Amino acid sequence: MTEVQAPDILRCAYMEIIVTDLAKSREFYVDTLGLVVTHEDEEALYLRTYEEFIHHNLVLRKGETPAVAAFSYRVRSPEDLDKAVAFYEARGCEVRRNPEGFTRGIGDSVRVVDPMGFPYEFFYDVEHRERLAWAYDAHIPGALVRLDHFNQITPDVPKAVDYMEDLGFRVTEDIRDSEGTVYAAWMRRKPTVHDTAMTGGNGPRMHHIAFATHEKHNIIAICDKLGALRKSDAIERGPGRHGVSNAYYLYLRDPDGHRVEVYTQDYYTGDPDNPAVHWDVHDNQRRDWWGTPVVPSWYTDGSRVLDLDGNIQPLVERSDASEMEKTIGADGFSYTRPEDEEELPEWKQGEYKLGHQL
Amino acid sequence: MTEVQAPDILRCAYMEIIVTDLAKSREFYVDTLGLVVTHEDEEALYLRTYEEFIHHNLVLRKGETPAVAAFSYRVRSPEDLDKAVAFYEARGCEVRRNPEGFTRGIGDSVRVVDPMGFPYEFFYDVEHRERLAWAYDAHIPGALVRLDHFNQITPDVPKAVDYMEDLGFRVTEDIRDSEGTVYAAWMRRKPTVHDTAMTGGNGPRMHHIAFATHEKHNIIAICDKLGALRKSDAIERGPGRHGVSNAYYLYLRDPDGHRVEVYTQDYYTGDPDNPAVHWDVHDNQRRDWWGTPVVPSWYTDGSRVLDLDGNIQPLVERSDASEMEKTIGADGFSYTRPEDEEELPEWKQGEYKLGHQL
Amino acid sequence: MTEVQAPDILRCAYMEIIVTDLAKSREFYVDTLGLVVTHEDEEALYLRTYEEFIHHNLVLRKGETPAVAAFSYRVRSPEDLDKAVAFYEARGCEVRRNPEGFTRGIGDSVRVVDPMGFPYEFFYDVEHRERLAWAYDAHIPGALVRLDHFNQITPDVPKAVDYMEDLGFRVTEDIRDSEGTVYAAWMRRKPTVHDTAMTGGNGPRMHHIAFATHEKHNIIAICDKLGALRKSDAIERGPGRHGVSNAYYLYLRDPDGHRVEVYTQDYYTGDPDNPAVHWDVHDNQRRDWWGTPVVPSWYTDGSRVLDLDGNIQPLVERSDASEMEKTIGADGFSYTRPEDEEELPEWKQGEYKLGHQL
Amino acid sequence: MTEVQAPDILRCAYMEIIVTDLAKSREFYVDTLGLVVTHEDEEALYLRTYEEFIHHNLVLRKGETPAVAAFSYRVRSPEDLDKAVAFYEARGCEVRRNPEGFTRGIGDSVRVVDPMGFPYEFFYDVEHRERLAWAYDAHIPGALVRLDHFNQITPDVPKAVDYMEDLGFRVTEDIRDSEGTVYAAWMRRKPTVHDTAMTGGNGPRMHHIAFATHEKHNIIAICDKLGALRKSDAIERGPGRHGVSNAYYLYLRDPDGHRVEVYTQDYYTGDPDNPAVHWDVHDNQRRDWWGTPVVPSWYTDGSRVLDLDGNIQPLVERSDASEMEKTIGADGFSYTRPEDEEELPEWKQGEYKLGHQL
């Protein structure tokens, strides 16, 4: 399969998601998070971040069932679309091409159901919009300035990584155990920690979409605003510092339960020999550098994805070990210091701060 | 009792705590948190914050059992010590005065066991040290610049508040329920939200001592450093935004389990008619504005306190309702929106983010 | 004169200024700086900061000539107004009392022309408004949270300090030279570096009014917004770090040329023996800790003040040395290192970064 | 010349500079700025940023005369070195290749004198060192986390841009006037605003080398520390917000006068159709978004560069118009609002805040 050349992907560009109530979603993404409206009509909202110059980073489309319609990547040139077609046809995937584009503002596009069951899109042609980087009069305290990455749930992470490496992605970090099980992997095209990540679990599902802020206080401002609006229950996890990626993070749930991350300050990964970081699944600081426990819903929940006809993709169960069960609950454990065999201090016993105490 | 004039208290000034291993405590308070060493010897460490000009804000004294030896307040003038003596003698409290001071660097001092059983100290005379506010070459990313407040656990909060008001303190905020139970109260002399707070529980015990930073990122830097040192299990709760006080906070536990808060950005309270803020005990945003659950140890644990002879004070149990039981667990509940009677969204059910689901 | 007791002043509370175009001033103070409108009508705007609970911190009143009508302080009790009357009458000052208040929202008030020629006001009674500290949905990136201080221009600083000390103020910092000339002094009631400062120059004039933000990035956000609005010429000086006060600062000029400071992170000064800081007028880091030169307009410009009938107060010229002439220009000098007698590095010669090169 | 393929450059990687006193330079770059020492000996210091994994981002080599010995770029593969040789030989440039590398830690390298007279280096092979991104216990308040870019002074900017575009760089922003004169241009390989920029002036000279921080307060912390060390005269310009690049910036001068920028928060530029931003040379916000004037030394000063034998390269004078003369001084002008023909407000006249008033 190596003779089929992969398209040259620039970056994750936008996600199209199905929401059940456009007005509620608008309140969340526009009024609260401050995404910029490029276009809106009865059927859909097209939103972008302050530093974006392409038409949109997020499409909210009205539908019956919350789901993800497309994970969309921008490629380097129009010719890369032909490569995308060939790449997926060689893998026996369903491939559709629409010279008019599948969403407003985007031209010639290819959509496929990829080998893991995800609806992937590739495009080059796109309408430009004003980059609002300098429009500080329009910025809010929690300004979202860039789409940073996607995160996908799939049962077989190593298989997904193999395919994504064929597609030209590089692994920057992953979570493993000493028996060789891989629990999650982060992969990039643009030189950040990731454009997408694969999280082990029943899939295909979407784990989250992530937007970047400039500074950490911007993320705190989003939480403060949600508190003021009495919508703090939209906060699922964080804010905290990731071990993986070293970024400062926050996870929200939108009105349909779609998970949105706000993220800032990972590191440059653009060199071919960029050292990949491998985290032990039992390391209590891998998911949160401060050892704050991951809430169970963060492990278990995800958004269903659609096929190219708009039907919900069936789920495949994960057969490999589950990260949640490996690290919390009766059979799991995690450590702060690998060498530490001592008892916990008395004041720590019975707390859920350590995974094995939950 | 109103005819006995209270001493004019300026502010909480320092705490003297007993630690079991000076070297370990030094590593925590000096090497990690960056408190400035004013003096150290075989028996004790005298530490201050970067913006302090008095000899110390914290004394760590070596002993067998972790405990608090004194909550010490500075008064406006030497004459206020006489008032302190009279104030406590009128209440039948044990009172000792030491013209040489009870700790290094402090002159004429009064120590009492107060009506709630706490070892309180008052002093005016103190050695000055260089205020290191401008010494930015010595500041660390998580610079602690000021002692902000104490927090005490006591079974009968209204009784404690009455006594503290006699002593000249003013309530700025409290947590109550509709039946009139008071769960906690915040009281100030200097015009911040508090110099000390009363937290309902078995007492007398010390809940925490709090130091201030300038900005929120300074608090994040402390967590990041603890992660780098593989000491993230010192983080008990947070960082987060308090509802009460509106401050950004973090709770740590020192090597003996003493609780230390790092705190920034509450508000001015110095006017006599400063509006007190009353929080409903069931309001899910009272303790954390973002609705993040309070870890149980934060409710249950505290440091014992000493009498004037260095013996551990016996505990009195709280007979009023417990905040933890009122808000989490089988019988308790809390809400994000008072008017909200709907079911939680499906993705929220089964999570411990909401107190009543724990 | 010491037998006349001074009123117990809590803090600087608001300033009343005359502006020539209410719409333009509203655009500056409300649309750009985000002050909260408590009330507005054809004649005046009443504005407060996000954390304020009294009716206003700034009154903008329409008039022919830009000027300051009142520097207003809040006192601890209604009885302090009687003391204020007595205090100023004993000094032969013009004193007026209005039980209805001189501005909307304020009750019984005393206005005087003080010994330096400034229109000072004192009040206790005031309408309360909602403290918007928790209203993060309404905060902007450059949120002004508190009125911090006034700054006044007067020809004889030591004389002004003597009078202010009689009035109960304490000096926290000043700028002097080795011959004993005092160029400026900072004085406080609330325990910050100042409620007002005296700047040497032809007076009485108002140098600036200062509002506080929580963090330094809030001040940067104000500049970024002014740039986006193509109003960066409202920025007169900074942002930078003060030597005096250790605060991070910015100076703006409003549409009438009134100077507004935005200020954050000075230090606690509430102890009676708080060490005063004396700066050498030749110290290049006194006005800006980074040695950035002070623009000449900052030294020379100020707003005229009114008497109690609304007439412009005449100016008295400063006869003592001028700080600007002492430190910049042909005859002045300033140093970065007091001991440094070497030549400047070649790349520094001819630059205006050092005052003596201007 | 287009048939000769350019090497695939990843990013600016390090600069080698000649300093006259290693101890003084170490104090500046290591003790003050906190760069990490990878290696040091009698002749040279090899320094890297906290997030770097290659051997160094800066080499300080002891010598008689301050100068720049190499602007070094990393290429994607060993084969790109052959392309680099061919690329420069086709242009008649002096080319040297050293399989052992020209500096410690770097393997096979090519050095050339490029068509503008600059000593450029290309390498792929390099020793790895620990990426200290997570080593927060070692970070200082002003942590430099990444080498961001170089900036070069050359007399003919359009000619330099043509050559750099042949070399694979893309212009992201530039400064022009309506007559077509180009004053400066910013060009990138990695998807930030630049890996290097061309500044019009007598050249070849090095204008500055720039390191990135995570947040704006990190840059402020560097200034605060320089103040505390009484070295604030190392601050040449800023901190401020650039118009070009939208980054927050600071310019320092090292003990030899080499200029160092600290820089944070520009934007993603990695798409081929990334919109280039053209600034009018008369726009007062182009160099500083807040309109703060550029100090003349910033326009006039730069470091000389060496040829491959270590001799100072001769200067070629700029014949095109000078940005400084076009915008400040008797004949120049700049505007805050292009449409603004009004007189300045009175309080602005005579100030040097506006370029045309200097």
Protein architecture, described:
With 358 residues, chain A is α+β, with helices and mostly antiparallel strands. Chain A has one domain (9-132, 141-304): Roll (2,3-Dihydroxybiphenyl 1,2-Dioxygenase, domain 1), CATH 3.10.180. Helices cover 15% and strands 31% of the residues of chain A. Chain A is built from six helices and 18 strands. Chain A has helices at 22-32, 79-89, 157-166, 216-228, 296-300, 323-327, and strands spanning 9-19, 36-40, 44-48, 58-62, 67-75, 95-98, 109-113, 119-123, 146-154, 170-176, 182-188, 196-200, 205-212, 235-241, 248-253, 259-264, 277-280, 303-304. In chain A, strands 9, 10, 11, 12, 13, 14, 15, 16, 17 and 18 form a ten-stranded mixed sheet that branches. In chain A, a hairpin with a 6-residue loop joins β14 (235-241) and β15. Chains in contact: A-B, A-C, A-D, B-C, B-D, C-D. The interface between A and B is large, with 42 and 42 residues. Chains A, B, C, D: Residues 11-125, 146-265 form the VOC domain. Chains A, B, C, D: Its cofactor is Fe(2+).
SSE layout and pairing:
Four copies of one chain form a homotetramer.
Chain A: E1 9-19, H1 22-32, E2 36-40, E3 44-48, E4 58-62, E5 67-75, H2 79-89, E6 95-98, E7 109-113, E8 119-123, E9 146-154, H3 157-166, E10 170-176, E11 182-188, E12 196-200, E13 205-212, H4 216-228, E14 235-241, E15 248-253, E16 259-264, E17 277-280, H5 296-300, E18 303-304, H6 323-327
Parallel strand pairs in A: 1-4, 5-8, 9-12, 10-17, 13-16
Antiparallel strand pairs in A: 1-5, 2-3, 3-4, 6-7, 7-8, 9-13, 10-11, 11-12, 13-18, 14-15, 15-16
Cofactor (chains A, B, C, D): Fe(2+)
InterPro entries (chains A, B, C, D): DHPA_dOase_Mn/Fe, Glyas_Bleomycin-R_OHBP_Dase, Glyas_Fos-R_dOase_dom, GlyoxalaseI/FosfomycinResist, HPCD_C_sf, VOC_core, Xdiol_ring_cleave_dOase_1/2
GO molecular function (chains A, B, C, D): 3,4-dihydroxyphenylacetate 2,3-dioxygenase activity
